[in-house]
Amino acid sequence: MPHHNSVFHAVLKLLPWQVLDEAVERHAGAERARSFSYKNQLVAMLYAQLSRSQSLRHVVAGLQSHANRLYHLGIEPARRSTLADANRDRPAAVFAELLAMMIERTHRGLRQTMQGVTYVIDSTGLRLNQLSADWAQFSAKACGMKLHVIYDPGAGCPIYAAITAARTNDITAAQAMPIQPGATYVFDLGYYDYAWWAELHAAGCRIVTRLKSNTPLTVTETRPLERCGPILSDHVGRLPQRQARNRKNPMSEPVREIQVRIQTGKVLRIVTNDLNAPAQEIADLYKRRWAIELFFRWVKQTLKITRFLGTSENAVRIQVTVALIAFLLLRLAHKAQAAVSSPLEFVRLVAANLMHLRPLQHLHTPQPRPKDAPGQLNFLTP
Question: Exposure string (b/e) for 99-119, b if CB count within 10 Å is 16 or more?
Fold first, then answer.
């Protein structure tokens, strides 16, 4: 019978371990741990995400119960206090650097061409309990952080991620994001800043977003519409000359406002700097924002980052970063096999078979039932 490594081992083989070693060298240097390595810590946290563990005790107990399966990974189960201390004290930048490299490699592997690429920008809140109030207090009764993401719906993966305090404005985080010249960027009202729009426009990017209800548009051209469609109007015009009382609006180029009625009956004012594309194409681009909402829901519900294994800022940052690394590993592992077409079903099968000895290609097939040992009674047989 051929030998197979565990499903967990097969997933971890997709990690660029050399990148982790280089990141440890840069950020930890001579202080890097020897008895409990960064590799040990990463594997333990990935196990937490893929097994959907609810506590550090659950993580440690699970790894200890499968200690013989960890031999080929070159790691050993850790104590709960050791893992908790590592998450609290070790620089989260080590794992952030690994995530950045994983994002680059995954995106390059999933996307065949960079022409006509569309990116969606948004953020989601991560609610924390009062044990994190000393650093994550947002209001009198709420604590939290924000995850800011640039998402590629065509590839089905993020291309950028950043974690900030919950009180950080979305536009502040967006101003630190990398801009790819010529790409299309779709975002909502949280990124309402004419100066940032002007930067995107100057880089040759196409912008698709919404206008606030109280923003006037000086119309210079009205375009004809198709009959019986959701598009209510198509105007070319200019935004207000001033963004605030004493600030000149840097977005002085003509823009286009398309009013569209959605299924709920609400009318949206979609604005773009693309003066040539069909109005329906612009409306369809704005609808692609839904892809990033599905991504946030998937990460929160499937990888369980609504429940945190630590209370310090560093521990929370590490867990969220490792959760995103787990997402990318699952995307790569799903692509590497052809037996399970549904990504969600694949993730469920990985979680159910995480420490079983079987190849990824055979996750959907039942394991053979072991024969009874000599002299063993089979109580299932009448």
Answer: bebbbeebbeebeeeeeebbb
Q: Where are the domains of the chain?
A: 7-95+307-362, 204-276
Task: Please give the distance of CA 303 from its chain centroid, rounded to a whole number.
Answer: 11
Work out the burial of residue 122: count CB atoms within 10 Å of its CB; fewer than 13 is exposed, 13-18 middle, 19 or more buried: buried
| DSSP 8-state code for residue 263 | T
| Residue from 18, 315, 39, 297 nearest 149 by CA | 297
Segment 23-55, tens digit of pLDDT: 999 987 655 566 889 999 999 999 999 998 889
CA separation for the pair 5, 364 (Å, rounded): 17
330 within 8 A of 7, measured Cβ to Cβ: no
Report how many helices (DSSP H) and strands (DSSP E) the chain contains, helices first: 13, 11
End-to-end CA distance of the chain: 30
Q: Tell me: the pLDDT tens digits for 53-95?
A: 889 999 999 999 988 888 777 788 889 999 999 999 999 999 9
Kindly give the residue spans of alpha helices, DSSP state H, lying in the chain. 7-12, 17-27, 38-50, 56-65, 80-89, 93-110, 133-136, 170-174, 194-202, 279-287, 290-302, 313-335, 343-352
Which of 172, 170, 174, 161 has the alpha carbon at shortest distance from 320? 161
